[in-house]
Amino acid sequence: ERHPDTLSSLHNLAHIYIRHTRYADAFPLYEQAFKLRREVLGDRHPDTLGSEFGSVYALMTSSRVDEAVRRLQATADDRLAYAEAELASTRGPGARTSLLDRQGHFQSYVLSLALRHKRPDTLTLAGEIMLHWKQLLRSEAAFVEHLVRTSDDPDVEALGQEILDLRARLARFAQEEERSENPVAVLEELDAKELALIRVSGAFKRRQDVRRASIEQLQAVLPDNSGVVEFRQFVPLNDQGGTLGPARFAALLVRPGQPPVLTNAGEVEDVERLLAVLRDDIVPARAEKAAGDLRDQLFSAFGDDLDALDRVYVAPDGILNLVPFDRLRMADGRYWDEQQDLRILQASRDLLEEIEPSTVGEGLLALGGIDFGSGSWAVAEDVPVNEPIDGKEQIVASIDRTLLSDVRERVRGEVDAFNPLAGSLIEVAHIERLFNERRPDAPVTIWTGHAASEARLKALGGQISSPRILHVATHGFYLANPGRQTRSQLQSGIALAGANHGLAGGDIQGEDGILYSLEAEGLNLEGTELVVLSACDTGRGVIDYSEGVVGMVRALRIAGAQQVLMTLWPISDQATAEFMRIFYSQWLAKPDEGPAAALKFAKAAFRDHPDERYRKPRIWAPFVLIGA
Predict the structure, then answer these.
(1) pLDDT, tens digit, for every residue of 186-225?
(2) Distance (Å) of CA 224 to CA 49, 131, 221
(3) Backbone φ and ψ of 545, nearest 5°
(4) Secondary structure of 351-407 in the HEC alphabet?
(5) SS3 538
(6) pLDDT (tens digit per residue) in 25-38
(7) Is 182 exposed, middle or buried (0-12, 13-18, 19+ CB in 10 A)?
């Protein structure tokens, strides 16, 4: 009677009763399966959690809402703990992502329940589900990389060095026609070492406390008269287990001292349609209408609760990560950021778990006027490559180099070649002059031409200290079609010195001249307050249900950057040079106000710019600042 297979049959029989709407018959079977599975398999076994969820479902279909909510509250922590344990014992990023995807049904059910029965207990439950589950992998990766960069634990250092060696061995495969060892075996060993490092991070109590943060804790850190709107994509379910239509967005508004407000923010397909019209502003009137309609769909249900706030944090999900929120139109015709101070987060939990850097970066490092070269390009011998010091080697995210030729082919197919960006040289020259005038004591380093290499960038944190500000003016790319490769972090990146030579299969100081998002995760940006990606499409990436946009912004945040200024679509390098001149002028003039205020000032200046071409929203709207 207690054999796991017997209990599976018991659970499945209950499920069949549910399918035939015999809910009263299903509930005692689910309860029996849950009780025995808990005794045999433990509280956090996925089968135990499955039977518990079945019991809750049967309660809901029998209109026993109070009891169902209590059971969901009781099991939510166990379900999250199970997911965290699996993340810490599951090899390979694909498997970990799939694990989180499978929890989507549970989250959809909780959100559907809260939207149908808007009570304090259901709203709190839904809010904490959104707070806890969003971007677990990104959060974990950022913490682990921080741990490697800053820990003095010899075990952590040893693991870091082993990971570095394994990644270096993988990199050599790209240039070896005859391999002396099996790359699959090296990949498996690398996965195991990375997994061991993840386990080390689980010992930190503060991080575990933040992972279980409550709505009250989030309210406590919000400034007065501010609020955060957290979005989550879900599939609405009814009491009989059927869907009520296509995927939708739930939106949760959290304010200090006020109960949370949860709304249905409409269908994902409607957002996609409106966003396409807004981005393609060939007919300005249509784009402006879409900007108003999109704001209405996502936020109008909050009414005065939202409009009365001074500052609004927005934590998007899914396709919403590509929305320029400050470009949306209010009912009175103003752009949204003309009425309120807008801040964009990856998840509202970022307000609670911002990792405190172990050091403070100094000055500015700017890359621009980069020589992308040609297929026959060669590196000048006098270009320095700075090596890390004190034996602490740089941990650079691994790439399966056996797939790299396919990625290169797809980059070539989409961009042909990376053309020179004359405006980027002007851009970094403006920034250098501004810093020398207004921050004469701050070190300023400019890399142009051959010197703006991938190898030098990866050496940050060694003989070159991590800068306070890293500015990269270059080409960005995003591959909509991933081809044979399976790591989504290889679908986006930025071009550095010799990138065209690298696309042809050449070598530039041991690199290929292209910094993929996967590699950017391993940069040492500890102490870097801001990274500016002055390049096209740097905000794009693979949209993942659990993790948001998996791309360059996510990678740089994992690498330690506190904030990232990026772009949502292609931009003109001349217009960008002017935009950055205004942005830095304002920030350096009023440093205490921070980059968010400087960005808002620059956008307002462009809307009233003497050059009429710069007033168009498609010129100033794509610049978005991410981070708490």
Answers:
(1) 767 777 777 777 666 554 445 555 566 788 888 999 999 9
(2) 39, 20, 9
(3) -55, -45
(4) HHHCCCCCCCCCCEEEEEEECCCCCCCCCCCCCCCCCCCCCCCCCCCCCCHHHHHHH
(5) coil
(6) 999 999 999 999 98
(7) exposed
